[in-house]
Write a sequence for this structure.
């Protein structure tokens, strides 16, 4: 701890010089300025560093905002940096947080393998590492807090195979660098495989999307439609961003709203597409619950207290102690009882394009 305070003091000097640059330069960097952290010099103050891959998707902005609000409520400091999908930048930002002497480092990695170096660097300074939402592979990461990501894939495939028990299927996955993308796909294949073996379902196209880019997903969907002369019966997209891309390609062929498409993240645009009938479902992962759980665990790590976990996830090196939360299926029928009831998105915005007399009544 003393070493950390010393580090924090010296880092403060360094950061004060730097801050003007980083703060101004990096749109993804949001920090409670270290100077604040030391205002009043409360030694027992817990400082948590959070190294994020990106703020590109709506959900990550929610993670950032919820974590900052919750940290304030709990009286802990949180320093957040986002690397915009750049591995070298994420490593540099994480090393910067480590050099500032944070008590715990949370990491949502861009690249599950590359981020292992961050765990090593943090452990060299005695700083525990929490893998946030996405797992860091092949490392001695201390704890993993996320949703049950394999179940996300199972829920997507279960939903769409009930609607379309037979036919030509397309799978559009997420970023190959993201361990979650592989868990989502594994879950979906758990459900599809027996139906494929029975010959009921034919997986005519199956590709991952670099950096979760909707434009990649749109290209995949266009290729699948061309290769199968538009004879596509269902599409499993790993998240709402890729679903949006696939639906753009389907609408070019006047198939949007006719071919079921899954998603994930309950983005506002996806919730609108769902109530308008363009997207079939999404998997809702209440981000405030994830942020609050991760902060509770991080504070326990900082205080060297025992962390309650509800499972482990193997990362190729160890069985990482994990806290996995439940994902929730959302479609047109339960939008009011989930997204609207939780205040995740405002009623007026979700039903924006639905005539007032056709909207479900607010309770
Ligand atoms: C995954 C995350 C999803 C989705 C995706 C794109 O790791 O679990 O919720 O947002 O990244 O950023």
């Amino acid at each position: 701890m003393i070493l950390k305070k010393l580090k924090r003091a010296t880092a403060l000097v360094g950061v004060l010089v730097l801050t003007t640059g980083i703060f101004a330069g990096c749109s993804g960097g949001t920090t409670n300025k270290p100077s604040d952290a030391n205002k009043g010099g409360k030694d027992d103050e817990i400082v948590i560093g959070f190294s994020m891959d990106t703020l590109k998707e709506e959900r990550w902005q929610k993670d950032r905002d919820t974590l900052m609000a919750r940290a304030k409520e709990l009286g802990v400091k949180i320093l957040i940096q986002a690397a915009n999908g750049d591995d070298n930048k994420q490593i540099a930002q994480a090393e910067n947080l480590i050099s500032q002497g944070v008590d715990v480092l949370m990491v949502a990695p861009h690249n599950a393998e590359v981020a292992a170096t961050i765990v090593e660097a943090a452990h060299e300074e005695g700083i525990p590492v929490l893998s946030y939402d996405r797992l860091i592979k092949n490392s001695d990461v201390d704890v993993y807090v996320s949703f049950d990501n394999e179940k996300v894939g199972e829920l997507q495939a279960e939903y769409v195979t009930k609607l379309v028990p037979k036919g030509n299927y397309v799978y559009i996955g997420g970023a190959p660098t993201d361990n979650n993308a592989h868990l989502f796909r594994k879950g979906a294949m758990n459900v599809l495989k027996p139906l494929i073996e029975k010959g009921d379902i034919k997986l005519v196209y199956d590709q991952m999307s670099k950096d979760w880019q909707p434009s990649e997903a749109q290209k995949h969907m266009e290729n699948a439609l061309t290769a199968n002369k538009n004879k596509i019966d269902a599409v499993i997209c790993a998240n709402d961003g890729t679903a949006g891309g696939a639906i753009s390609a389907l609408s070019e062929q006047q198939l949007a709203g006719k071919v079921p498409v899954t998603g994930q993240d309950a983005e506002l645009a996806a919730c609108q597409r769902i109530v308008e009938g363009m997207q079939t479902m999404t998997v809702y992962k209440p981000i405030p619950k994830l942020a609050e759980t991760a902060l509770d665990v991080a504070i326990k790590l900082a205080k060297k207290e025992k962390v309650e976990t509800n499972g482990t996830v193997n990362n190729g090196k160890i069985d990482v102690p994990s806290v996995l939360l439940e994902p929730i299926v959302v479609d047109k029928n339960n939008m009011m009882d989930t997204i609207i009831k939780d205040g995740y998105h405002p009623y007026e915005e979700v039903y924006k394009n639905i005539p007032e007399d056709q909207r479900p009544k607010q309770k």
